[in-house]
Amino acid sequence: MKIREATKFDLPKVIDLINDFYNEIELDLKSYGELNLEYVNKLYHHIVLGGGVAIVAEHGDTLVGIILAIKNPNVFYPDKIVMNELLIYVNPSHRKSSACYKMLLKYKEIGEKLIKDEKITTYTVTKTEQLDQIKFENLGYRKTEEVWVAGL
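RESULT FIELD:
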C-alpha cells in the first residue's frame, strides 16, 4: 500500500472514488443529479495546485482511498486560513487495511507542516460512520462539534 499526494494525472481515478463515496453514503442524492465533472475538475486542480491537499492510497495501480481538503479563509477571521477536509473515502475491500490510518497520518504531517510554515492556522477532519473505528484523539485531534444533516 502506497500513500502519496495526488497529482493532476490521478483525476479520472479520483472521480471514480468520489462517485463510489456518493453511491455508498446513506443520503438520497437523486435530486442532486449527476456529478458535475467540470466543477470537480476545477476544484481538484485548485486543490492539487496548492489550494488544499489531495492524498491517495494506492494498491498496485489502483487508487483505493482518498482524502481531499481545501484551504479557505476562516469565516470570522478572513486573514486566517484554515484547511477543511472535504472527503475521506476508502474502498470497502480495503477498509480493514491500514489505508485510512496511513492517509490520516500523511494528512496530519502535511497539516502540521503548513501550520509551521504559517500557511494555515488549523486543519480539520470529519468523523463519519465509516471512520467510527478511528481514534482521532490518538492522532492529536480534539472534538469541537458534531455535524448533523437534514433535508436529504
